[in-house]
Design goal:
Blueprint (H helix, E strand, L loop, with lengths): L11 H14 L11 H8 L3 H13 L3 E4 L3 E4 L4 H25 L2 H17 L5 H19 L2 H21 L5 H18 L3 H28 L4
Helix pairs in contact: 1-3, 2-3, 4-6, 4-7, 4-8, 4-9, 5-6, 5-8, 6-7, 7-9, 8-9
Length: about 230
């Protein structure tokens, strides 16, 4: 069932953006599927102007691609794309963890520990949208403490493209509990013990494990496509 847009609180554009983003990440729309404006207007009961603004935002997040002669479609990632993204992500997040352990000040370490408390408390029982928001805050704290603008800007682009895959990995059976343990290891190494090598390895291990789940899911979808 499509989400219901509330006519109060957040502006319509923000509500529709949140709902359509969640639908894409939850695979309500298949990779490569056209996003037809008229149908989206009916789905969310809003104007074409709102839908076009939302689609532009999702294009900037790499969740939607604009294809000549077809219009906006849900972004697709091949297995090779995914493998390459996780390889680069692992290297950069490993560097971010190491830099955090070396450079983060007291406030930044406290922010990461606070983000980890939310992970422990809420992550396993949260829905997809909330899980992604919790991880975004954790990574935001980690990258902020790394104090490297090139790492920050590069990872921002990689995380945008990986978001589709994260939607699959965080919902995989047992993955949530493993993610909590892995993020706790990152926090302990980077913010508590300030062990540069251990922080790098913990970050790299978390990405490697996520990659295994994502690639397996892509393989399963390739051999058993949805009807």
């Amino acid at each position: 069932m499509p989400g219901q847009v509330r006519r109060v609180a957040a502006p319509l554009r923000e509500q529709v953006l949140e709902l359509l983003r969640a639908d894409i990440l939850a695979a309500e729309f298949a990779p490569g599927q056209r996003l037809v404006e008229s149908r989206l207007c009916e789905r969310f009961e809003v104007s074409r102007t709102v839908i076009r603004e939302v689609l532009r935002q999702l294009e900037s997040e790499a969740l939607v691609a604009l294809v000549p002669h077809r219009g906006p479609v849900v972004a697709e990632l091949t297995r090779a794309d995914a493998k390459a993204l996780y390889e680069v992500r692992g290297a950069l997040e490993g560097l971010a963890g190491a830099l955090f352990a070396e450079r983060a000040d007291t406030g930044q370490r406290n922010r990461l520990r606070a983000a980890m408390r939310v992970v422990r408390r809420d992550f396993a029982g949260a829905d997809l949208t909330r899980r992604l928001a919790i991880k975004d805050e954790f990574y935001g704290a980690l990258i902020d403490g790394a104090d490297n603008e090139i790492v920050r800007s590069t990872l921002r682009g990689i995380h945008a493209r990986v978001q589709l895959l994260r939607g699959m990995t965080v919902q995989a059976e047992g993955r949530a509990r493993r993610s909590v343990r892995e993020l706790a290891q990152i926090t302990d190494a980077a913010a508590v013990r300030r062990d540069v090598d251990a922080a790098r390895e913990a970050c790299e291990r978390h990405v490697r494990n996520a990659a295994v789940v994502a690639l397996a899911e892509l393989d399963a979808r390739a051999t058993d496509p949805p009807p």
